Amino acid sequence: MNVSLSELANRVQGVVVGNAQISISALSPIDDVLVGSLVFADGEHNLRRAEQSKAAAILVNQQMTSSQKSVIQVANPLKTFIQLLNFFYPVSKPKASIHPTAVIAEDVTLGNNISIGPFVIIESSTTIGDNCVIKGHVSIGNEVTIGHDTVIHPQVTIYAQTRIGSRVSIHASSVIGCDGFGYTFVDDQHLKIPHVGHVVIGDDVEIGANTVIDRATLGATVIGEGTKIDNLVQIAHSVKLGKHNILCAFTGIAGSSVSGNHVIFAANVGVSDHVQIDDGVILAARAGVPPKKHLKKGNVYLGNPARPKEKALEQELAVTRIPMMRKKIKGLSEKISLLSERLAQIEAEK
Fold this sequence. Notes:
Blueprint: E1 3-4, H1 5-11, E2 15-17, E3 23-24, E4 26-28, E5 37-40, H2 44-51, E6 57-61, E7 70-74, H3 77-88, E8 97-98, E9 103-104, E10 109-110, E11 115-116, E12 121-122, E13 127-128, E14 133-134, E15 139-140, E16 145-146, E17 151-152, E18 157-158, E19 163-164, E20 169-170, E21 175-178, E22 183-186, E23 189-192, E24 198-201, E25 206-207, E26 212-214, E27 220-223, E28 228-229, E29 234-235, E30 240-241, E31 246-247, E32 252-253, E33 258-259, E34 264-265, E35 270-271, E36 276-277, E37 282-283, E38 288-289, E39 294-295, E40 300-302, E41 307-308, H4 309-320, H5 322-349
Parallel strand pairs: 4-5, 5-6, 6-7, 8-11, 9-12, 10-13, 11-14, 12-15, 13-16, 14-17, 15-18, 16-19, 17-20, 18-21, 19-24, 20-25, 21-26, 24-27, 25-28, 26-29, 27-30, 28-31, 29-32, 31-34, 32-35, 33-36, 34-37, 35-38, 36-39, 37-40
Antiparallel strand pairs: 1-3, 2-7, 22-23, 40-41
């Protein structure tokens, strides 16, 4: 692809400063710039790097410019760069078709313009909306509902009665709707608690590879609209996540915990059961939340057990002072011993 800088600027409502007829053939990251490419420079340091690179032009904010290369000035360079990524590298969508090896129950309802790959299984009473892509070796249980423009990647398993919204993406080998891990110890054995609920996934959700979302004991495990889930995440039975949450890799959320909207779970966060998390909370990497805690709106939590940022830093600093305090205590103890000996001598001389 070769596009003039002026055409790109018009596409993203930007302003060209410099030669608007320069041809752009690709986009490049700042640390691996291709000849003839457009590069996004965030900050003065990266602008200097871009100016010294092989880039044909630079994408910058409205306050920045360059005397060495042509630039496109935009209000939000990162958002614009995402737009341009979609323009230069559009996602290819397979043609509407049903592979002859797919096994589809007679009473399944299929929308228009659907692509179903090889060895897919779709069980009874399931409904799939328009423009969906179901890739190879996907297994979909009975009474599942899937909205329009949803993509299910290879080897995903979707258990019965799951409800999935529109424009959802579920990546390879994830499992949606399996039994929750619920047992009670009775008569010297672990008695399984039946899980007869289901999973509800809102619109515009993305679920990474090898992630598991368990069905509820009763009712629904809910993933709110716009939530983005990384690879290797575990969401237990009856959890309810709000809208536009972020869950990074290796996060685990135990049963019946509830989050508000715009909550961020950084990597390797562990949330115990029956935790209430308010809107806008940020859980830093490796934070651990004990059972039945209430994390308050807008706070950042660190550590294990998770504490508000200010408290956690205060306690961490206190821990680092322990060696110095021990040294001081040892010195004071020695002085007290000397004073005690001197007092004993004075008493003996009386």
